[in-house]
Each structure stands twice: as C-alpha cells, then as structure tokens.
Amino acid sequence: MGRKALGAHALVVYAFLYLPILIVVAYAFNGGRQTLNWEGFSTRWFGEALRDDTITSALRNSLLVALGNAAVACLLGTMLALALPRMRRSTRIPLDALVTMTLVTPEIVFGIAALVFFSHAGIALGLKTILIAHVVFNASVVALVVRARFVGMGRSFEEASYDLGAGPVSTFRQVTLPRLAPAIVAGGLLAFTFSFDDFYTSFFVSGAGTSTLPLFIFSSLRFGVSPVINAVAVLILCLTVVAIVVAYLILRRSSPKTLPGL
Amino acid sequence: MSKHEPVWERPLDRRGFVAGTAALIAAAGLGRVGDAFGAAEQQEAGQLLYYNWADYVNPTTYAAFTKATGIGVKKDFYASNEALLAKLKGGARGYDLAVPTGYMVQILAQEKLLQPIDWAKLPNVRRNISSKFRRLPFDANDRFSVAKDWGTTGFVYRTDKVKERPKTWREFFTLAKTKYSGKVTVLDGIPEVVGSTLVMLGYSYNSDSKSELDAAKKELLALKPHLLAITSTEYKQLLISGKAVMGLGWNGDGAAVAAKKPAAYVVPTEGGEFWVDSYVIPVGAKNKAAAHAWINYVYGAKANAVETSYTYYGTPLKAELVKPYLTKAVFTNPAVFPPVRTLAKLEPNKVSPRGTALRSRIWTEFKNA
Amino acid sequence: MAAVAARKRWGRRARGGAPSYPGWLALPALGWYGAFFLAPLAFIFAYSFAELSGFAGVDFAWNLENYRYLWDPVYGEVFLRTLGLAGFGTAATLLVGFPFAYWLARYAPAKTLLLLLVILPFWTSFLIRTYAWLIILDPDFPLFRALDVNLLYSQRAIYIGVVYNYLPLMVLPLYAALSRMDWALVEAAQDLGDGPLRAFRRITLPLSLPGIVAGSLLVFIPLTGEYLIPAILGGNKTAYAGTLIAQQFSEAHDWPFGSAIAVVVIAGMTVVLVAFSRLAARGEVAHG
Questions:
Q1: Which terminus of chain B is less hemmed in, N or C, by CB atoms within 10 Å?
Q2: What phi, psi does C58 have (nearest 5°)?
Q3: Using the beta-carbon criterion (under 8 Å), do B6 and C52 form an inter-chain contact?
Q4: Between C20 and C36, where is the model more confident?
C-alpha cells in the first residue's frame, strides 16, 4: 500500500514533531539573550536555571505532585481495573462512562469545577489540591491501561493456579500481579507525565507560592521566551528521557522465555 | 502470539517486577511524600512571598533587599488585576504582598481580602512619600495600601515608521484601520480598551450608560479585524522588533520601548486613564513583617530610583529626593513624569458592577469579531 | 480453544475456579471520583442557576438568567467556532495520524522505540512547545520567510498548534488498534484479488474503527475546552468556549455565568460521548 509513501509520510511527521523541540534545544544553548540572534554556544542558561530557586522549587513541586499522584493513581486505578471487567453489565457500563468522562472532560471545565468545590469545602489551595485533582484523571488512565492488559491476558493461568490449590491472594500475588506489573508501571509512567506537564487544572487549583513548573513557565513566558526557560525545558526533557530509559531497562528484564502470551 | 509483542505486554520476571515496584513505592512512600508536601508548602520562616505583575521590579532589587534585611524573596506573578482578585477570592492564602491598581484595592477591601498596613513600621514611607499620594480616593484612610508607582494609559508608536505623529485616540484608531492595519496591538485589559474608546467618543472612562457603551462597542468591532494581537505583555517586544508599529499601552512600557528604538508615548488629547498601583497585604499573609520591610526598603530614595530607572513608571516619593539618583534622561522623560496639565484630563478607573458586566459582554463580542 | 471456553464462563466464580475480584475493589476509585469529580461538577451545575452579585459575590437566585443570556447569537457564534475547531482538529489529526500509525504498526522496525519517539516531544512543557512555534512562525525566522508567508498570530497558526499538540492523542489509540491487526488477513485478501484500496476498506478500516473512535474522542472533546493555543499562537484575538469560561473565572469574575457556559460544554460533550459509544458498540458487534 505504497509502503515507501507511508514511510516518507512518517518521516515528515517526525520532522514536524521535532521542529519545535530543536528550536528549544538550540536556543537553550544560545549565548545571547535575544531568541532570534545566535550569539555563540553557551551553557550559562542551565547554570542560571539551576541557581534560580524559583525554578528549582517549582521543579521540586512538580516532581512531588507527579510522583505522589502516580502512586495514588496506580493504586486506585489498578483496583478499579481488576473489579470492572467482572462486574455485571448493568453496573459496569455506567462506571465505564464515568471513567471515560473523567478522561475527556475538558480541563478548563474540570479545573474551574474543582476550584469552586475546594473553595466551598474550605480546602486550602496548594500542592495537595493539585494532586487530588490530577489523580481524578490519572486513576482513569491507569485503570484503562491495566484493564486492557488484564482482559487481554486471559484467565487460563489464574485458573491453573487455582486448580493447583493456590488461594485467591497467593494466585494474585504470584500469577496475576507479575503479569500485570508492566501495565501498572506503564500506567504510572503516563500518570506521572500527565501530571508533570499539566497546566489548565493546576492553574485553577494551585495556591499561593505553590507553583508547579508549567505554572511558573506560563507566568514567565508572558513576557517573552527567555533562554532560561528553554534551558529548563531541555533539563526536563533529559530528566524524562532518563526516567523512561530506566523504566524500559527494568521492564526489559523480562526474559521472553517465560510465558508465551495467551 | 506475534514476535513483536510490545514490551508492556511481556510478563515480568520476579526480579524485574520487584525492582520496578520497589522503585515506585520507595519514591512515593506515602508518609514521606506527605512530609515533603508539607515542607514544600511551608515558606521558610523569614521569607517574603511577593505576588506581582511580571517584570515590575528591577531584578537587582531582590538581591539588594535580601542583603539589607536578610529576608529572602519568593515571587509569583499575575497578569491582570482581575486575575489577582480571582486567585484571592478562590481561596489562595499565603501571599505576603501584592500590587493591585487603585480600583482593585477598593474591591479587594470590600471583599475583605486585605489586612491593614501598619504605618508605624514604615519610617521611610512617612518621611519620603509625596503628599499627593496619601489618602487616595480608593483608600481614603490609608488603611490598606501604600502607593508603589503611578502611570497613565495611552498609546505608543514607532516614530521612524509612523510619520503621521498621532496625538489623539481618533488618529490611533483611523491609522490602525487603514495604513497600519495588521501592525497594531491593544492591551489585554477590558477597562483600558473599552475606557479609552469611550474617552475617544467624548464620554467618561468609567461610563456605565448602555448607549455610550454600545457606541464604544461599534468602534471596537470596526477596529478588531485590523489588530495584530491583544496583549499586555508582548507588545513591548513586538514594537521593538517592528512587527507592530502602534500599541495601546502603559507609559512605562512606552518609555522602555523608546529607550531601545525611536518611539514616542502619547497621552491622547481626548484623555485617558491615570492609575496608581499600591502595595497591599492580603488576608492569610504568613509574614507581615517581611511585607512591611519590603515596602519600607523600596521607599528609600536610592532604592526607589533604581526601580524607576527600570520600570519607567512614576514615583510616589517627593521628586526632589529621587532626582539625584536618576539619569537626566529618565527624569525629564515626559512619559515617566508627565506634566501637570496632561494629568488634568485623565480619569482614574472606577467602574461599577453594572459597568463591569456590560464591558465583559462587549469584550466577548470584540474577541468574536 | 481455552480462550473460547473461558469466555463462555460468565459470572463471578467460573467452574473450576479462578479468583473473582470483588466489586468493592472499585470503591476507593469511585469514592475519589464521587468526591473530587462528580461533586465539583454538581457545584458547577448549581452555580449556573446563581447570579453575580456586586463585584465578586454570588447570589443563589435559582433562575435561568445565565442560560437566557447565553441564548444569543454572540455566544452561539463562539460555540460554533469551538465546534469548528474541534472538528478540524479531529479530522486533521486523523488524516495525518492514520497513515502514520498504519506505517508504525505494519512496516516500522523497532516499534517501541519509534512510538516512544512520538511521545518524547511531549515531555517538554506544552507551553514551551507552543511558544517555540511562535519563534518558527515569526516572519524574521528563516522558515516561513523563505516561503514568503506570514502566519504570525493568524488562524492558521492556531490550526498548526492544535494539530501539533493533539497528534499523539490520536496516534496512540490508532496504533493500539492497528497493532492488533493480523496483517495476514490483508495479504490474503490481496492474494484473492482485492486491490490494496479495497482490502483496506473491507478489512483494515473496520478493524481499526475502535481506535479511530477512541482517538477522535480523545481529541475532539478536550479540544472543545482549548483556549491557550488560540491565546498564544492566535494573538489572543479569538474567543472559544474555553476562552469564555476562563474569562469568567479570572477576569469578569462571574462564576455563575462561567458555570453556565461550562454546563453547556458538558452537555455537548455528553451528547458526543453517547453518539461515539453507540458507534463503537456497533463496530464491536459487527466485527467482534
């Protein structure tokens, strides 16, 4: 089906995707302050970024919220994913709809709704409220990913384990969980990413002085793209690449020799 | 199955699984994360959390303040008075200092979002402030605010590209719709844009008459298709780079552009806005002492001159105190220190709730056009 | 074989036994959704019947004033424009994304790596990526200067930004669906005389329908709330539904009116969701 044409198309798409990234990386190393004048290669902006404690505290806040929310989302989402497929249709379908809603509701709507809710419930705005709001959609992300895997892997192994006399808990622990784990990790990774890069929801429910990195970037981008911001972006990029590589290496430790997929 | 099973569908062996979950749990041990949250949200004792407009403080002043007082400064930014109100009303607590414009000081006070300022802690202010900036209309008892700076809203244009030398709002509008279409910006501020249009038509900046506002709306709808952008923060750069040649904006930004490229800031003859931005201490401030310390510090004549030279906005101190520290260029710049007769035809913003609602509606139609 | 037998066993405890996961496992997640998703939405719904009092107060008048106010061509235009943007974004990402996902699923080597490469750009901040486009679109920047086209703050700039930021949301579900395809079926059909286009239409397209539906949902609905891309790349000159809501909550300070707009968006979203899920259900039933 025009294999070459498709390949060319894919190449163009990759170029399109990476063009802004190259710009960001290039100007992070631009010695000069004005974005459109190249003034020599320099790493000074990285140093400045790391020295500025508004930036480092925003980065720390983002990491805290993202990690925390990934943990909670994995817990809630996995439990949900386990319970859903084996429910009666009449309960499962509305619950499915609810989960979908949490995923697709435009963030501006959810953000303001959360703001109104927190303000009425008297919950002080801050990192905790950001985390709470993020878990709402990230639990669904994890639930979806884990559920797809859970449903796809079939029951044969669990049944075999039961037949061999293992109880439900040890079956779960020794048979189901290891096979589910890659999906949980993948879901957690997605939850981390979505939380780390989140802007709209965080904008409305953040409190005084608790900026996450995207919020900080927003407030400083208002008056021009500064090289320091570009440097921050490159730092985040490296951080996430490292995290992904680490996660991939951990996952890769599965030897294909174990269980043939079923 | 297929040999190309994606990695997330391959089962983990025990070691990998343990390593993976251990990493996740270790990184997010619930108890520890809770502590870390608490620590992150707490300010260090003796820090000032300063909520401000972007680019409104000379970057060197933060360090100088810390050196003089030992108090560190943490910053957060908002882009409009309304955004500040929204944040405070929405429940954000912990800002020690904020800088609303006069009319917003009044609203915030009415909404009980401000704490009283203790002038006893502000010797520099009492000594140096010009009497013109005490007991301002929006805070008649000087209870909640201390003036930071003042300015006007007009327009700025590139003198090397706009040879017509416009002096009125009418000229601004006409040139924008004809010769310089696509190269003009206006502020992202409802009161400024609507108010200036009203003034052009001979009405009050603060009118809340439906017929007058409708007339202003007509003018704005006609102007809209010719605009390059609606921005309060990017127009300086756009004017400097020449992508815009005229921009509705504030005097300080105008002077900042003129310092880099041939440009002029104009207070149009029909009139415009005269505003005062003031320091306030919001409810829930954790470090009132630090807030007072900052206000007192920037009211020192030398520190104030440093600020004025950066922001190009008018100082509320007695002029003769600040003059020795300012360059002649800044001191004689009519954009920074407009003559009295210019100020006479300007109005401060003082819109009623009804006027605000009507303006909001116009703004939506304006953006729709 | 075993899979078929397993599917036949319905209900909680299958014959021969397998762990049944009790329904209460779902409770923590559901509790979270209830408290932090449904309750906030309920508040918004209630607020839409209230009125702004003074500058920032709320008066629960329990009337339809806000909705009456919305029933106006000005706002109608805003909603239509929003639907237009959402529709364009969905169509464009589908057109660009489907061939891409197809290539990735069928022909690409090192699929996982290439898939990761698609997601990688999205680990820079959304804001920074979008502002980077401002640099690219700047008339002084070589790219469009060479093409002699000025897209700065234009409608087309908004479209580029939308496609750029929403492409992965379309590609991922498409890839997930296409990667499960058995390409042997397509090859068999071609062996039996179908042209490539016919094989695509009869086999690939229907089997990838769930992916298309999922991707479209993930792009269309969030796009109805998008307002930053028009604000940044479009010069902040156009109003979409998201712009209006944000404006009510941070400038006009009219929470009740903003809530009413949000309710309209939610209602629209529900309609779309129902329509899409019917489509998906039909796809599943027809093709298993």
A1: N
A2: -125, 135
A3: no
A4: C36
Q: Which chains touch C (3 or more CB pairs under 8 A)?
A: A, B
Same domain for B267 and B205: yes
Residues of chain A with Cβ-Cβ distance to B33 below 8 Å are: 64, 67-68, 71
Supply the pLDDT for residue A256: 42
Tens of pLDDT, residue by residue over C181-237, are 888 888 888 788 777 777 788 888 888 888 898 899 889 999 999 999 999 899 899
Same domain, B118 and B241: no
pLDDT digits (tens, 9 = 90+) for B329-345: 787 787 777 777 777 78
Q: Which whole-number Å values give the CA distances from B72 to A53, B40, B50, B58, C51, in the listed order? A: 11, 16, 10, 15, 42
Q: What value does the mean pLDDT take over residues A204-233?
A: 79
- Give me the pLDDT at residue B172, please: 96
Supply the CATH number for residue B80's domain. 3.40.190.10
CB within 8 Å: C250 and B82: yes
Phi, psi dihedrals of residue B76, rounded to the nearest 5°:
-145, 150
pLDDT in tens, A131-190: 999 999 999 989 988 888 888 777 788 888 878 887 777 878 888 888 888 888 888 888
Using CB atoms, which residue from B16, B43, B90 is nearest to A209? Answer: B43
CATH number at residue C277: 1.10.3720.10
Q: What is the pLDDT of residues B177-198, one digit of tens each?
A: 999 999 999 998 888 999 999 9
Full DSSP string of B88-141: HHTT-----EE--BHHHHHHHHHTT-EE---GGG-HHHHHHB-GGGSS-GGGTT
Q: What is the pTM of this model?
A: 0.83
Coil, strand or helix: which one is B227?
strand
Task: Specify which residues B152 forms β-bridges with.
Answer: B274
Q: Range of A114's domain?
A: 56-212
Through-space distance between the first and last CA atoms of chain A, rounded to whole angstroms = 31
3 state SS of C16: coil
Selection from C240, C96, C89, C85 nearest residue C166 by Cα:
C89
The DSSP call for residue B7 is G
